[in-house]
């Protein structure tokens, strides 16, 4: 066989091998621009500034968070109605719980009855919607702190706000760095904790719903890695410095009191992954110590250019999924294997549809991902004629082979 034919065959085999390990994520929702269904006639809307950043899934609603990173955002917490369709195109958003709660005062005065700016909400096992209201708006590139950040809990059965906890100033001065929340549900009464990364101050905020108290944990592993902050996305080059960004909870250990779990976390500006037991996080005395010894563990390195916004754990398979922004990709790691680059697999990559995967969550046995092309809005412009914002929904079972799940784990999803 000639060298040319041999080379062609090798390339073909490589291509087939690579393609067999990746999938095309199924689009569930896509928008060119965002429109709202319940605005008054003179609603304050500047459509080019409306960029969704996060989502949460319930039985009949898909919540969409649009943080007020610019002027012209009439409603920060919204939803679309789920009616059983497999795909939605340009659906209008409804304000949640209503428009009046989302509407800002004309003079931007503080008001505890208002929701100012939300990034990434979450729904817990007890049908409650949790989110952090940063209390901050951005106008012309300048941040304006309207009020103290607050943790909200809403009962989705009644749409009633059952808790609003204002985070004390001695824990965090403002909500500028509070871009996500992770819920640790122990029971469906009030025995639950929220873990909130503070990407600006490199700390973790911990809130006990039962005790209605918050405290903070500080650790050097929450800081960014200054050698891993360079990005080249969609032809745009820039540097960021975000610290701890995402927390996901691993398998429950029911043999231990309190069903403790490992909390996996990473700074956005880092290729590394870390963990700490929720036994430490739930205990205010242990979490707030100045010296932690081996409480916090370095698990390993995901590989070059693997900076990730959000990640999420799937308990049945033991797999963690990562939204990799520098690669326009979603990757996975089987936690039963050591964390090293060879064990982190790209399962989906798309340099058009997956530009800046801003949020990712495993809900039951489905993987959900949002992409929003935010980089174009910050450093260039969004084309209103393109589909700019997408949410993908993919059954976890479709990813297991690529993620090197064992045969026994794959069989759990056969039926």
UniProtKB/TrEMBL annotation:
<keyword id="KW-0732">Signal</keyword>
<dbReference type="InterPro" id="IPR017996">
    <property type="entry name" value="MRJP/yellow-related"/>
</dbReference>
<dbReference type="InterPro" id="IPR011042">
    <property type="entry name" value="6-blade_b-propeller_TolB-like"/>
</dbReference>
<keyword id="KW-0964">Secreted</keyword>
<comment type="similarity">
    <text>Belongs to the major royal jelly protein family.</text>
</comment>
<dbReference type="Pfam" id="PF03022">
    <property type="entry name" value="MRJP"/>
</dbReference>
<feature type="signal peptide">
    <location>
        <begin position="1"/>
        <end position="19"/>
    </location>
</feature>
<protein>
    <recommendedName>
        <fullName>Yellow-related salivary protein</fullName>
    </recommendedName>
</protein>
<dbReference type="GO" id="GO:0005576">
    <property type="term" value="C:extracellular region"/>
</dbReference>
């Amino acid at each position: 066989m000639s060298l040319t034919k041999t080379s062609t065959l090798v390339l073909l085999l490589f291509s087939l091998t690579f393609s067999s390990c990746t999938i095309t994520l199924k689009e569930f929702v896509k928008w060119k621009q965002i429109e709202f269904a319940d605005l008054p006639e003179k609603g304050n809307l500047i459509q080019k500034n409306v960029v969704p950043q996060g989502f949460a899934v319930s039985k009949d609603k898909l919540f969409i968070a649009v943080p007020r990173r610019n002027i012209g955002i009439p409603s920060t917490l919204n939803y679309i109605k789920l009616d059983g369709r497999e795909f939605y195109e340009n659906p209008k958003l409804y304000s949640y719980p209503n428009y009046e709660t989302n509407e800002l005062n004309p003079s931007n005065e503080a008001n505890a009855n208002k929701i100012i700016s939300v990034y990434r909400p979450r729904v817990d096992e007890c049908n409650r919607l949790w989110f952090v209201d940063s209390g901050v708006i951005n106008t012309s590139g300048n941040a304006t702190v309207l009020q103290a950040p607050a943790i909200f809990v809403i009962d989705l059965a009644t749409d009633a706000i059952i808790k609003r906890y204002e985070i004390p100033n001695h824990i965090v001065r403002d909500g500028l760095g509070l871009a996500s929340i992770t819920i640790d549900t122990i029971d469906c009464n009030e025995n639950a904790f929220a873990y909130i990364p503070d990407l600006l101050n490199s700390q973790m905020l911990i809130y006990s719903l039962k005790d209605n108290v918050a405290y903070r944990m500080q650790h050097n592993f929450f800081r960014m890695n200054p050698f891993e902050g360079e990005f080249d996305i969609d032809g745009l080059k820039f540097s960021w410095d975000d610290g701890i960004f995402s927390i996901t909870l691993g398998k429950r250990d029911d043999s231990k009191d309190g069903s403790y779990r490992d909390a996996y976390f990473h700074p956005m500006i880092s290729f590394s992954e870390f963990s700490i037991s929720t036994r430490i996080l739930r205990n205010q005395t242990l979490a707030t110590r100045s010296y932690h010894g081996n409480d916090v563990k370095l698990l390993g390195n995901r590989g070059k250019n693997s900076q990730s916004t959000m990640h999420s754990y799937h308990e049945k398979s033991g797999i963690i999924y990562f939204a990799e922004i520098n690669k326009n990709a979603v990757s996975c790691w089987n936690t039963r294997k050591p964390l090293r680059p060879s064990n982190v697999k790209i399962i989906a990559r798309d340099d058009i549809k997956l530009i800046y995967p801003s949020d990712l969550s495993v809900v039951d046995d489905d993987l959900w991902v949002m992409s929003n092309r935010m980089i174009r809005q910050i450093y260039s412009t969004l084309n209103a004629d393109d589909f700019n914002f997408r949410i993908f929904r993919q059954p976890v079972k479709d990813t297991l082979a690529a993620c090197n799940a064992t045969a026994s784990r794959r069989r759990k999803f056969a039926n």
